[in-house]
Amino acid sequence: MACLKKWLHWRELDKKAGAEVDSPCVACCRLNEDKICVGCYRHMDEIVDWRKKTPEQYQQIALNIQQRKALARSVGETVPMTEAEWRAARARNAQKLVTGGTL
Question: How far is Cα 20 from Cα 32, in angstroms, rounded to an integer?
Fold first, then answer.
C-alpha cells in the first residue's frame, strides 16, 4: 500500500508541474541488479528528475521501456501489473464484496 501512496503522490506532483508525459510508474519500485525498476522498466537514471525530461528524452525512455519489457517476457520474467489491471482487479473485488462473496 505504501507504494501506491507514493505513486499517487508523484502522479499529483506530475500534474501540478505540468509534466508533458505521465510517469510510467506502476507503484512497484524495486531495482534489479542492472538498476532497472522491475515495475516500470525504467533505469534509475531515467526515473530521477522525470518531470525535467525533454520530449525527446520521453520518447527514448518509452522505446527503452518497450525493449526491456519484450526482453523480460522473452526470458520468462514476470510482467508487472498495469494501472488498468490493478483498477479492474479492485473493481472485481469490490463487486464480490457487494454481492456477499469473498475475496
Answer: 27
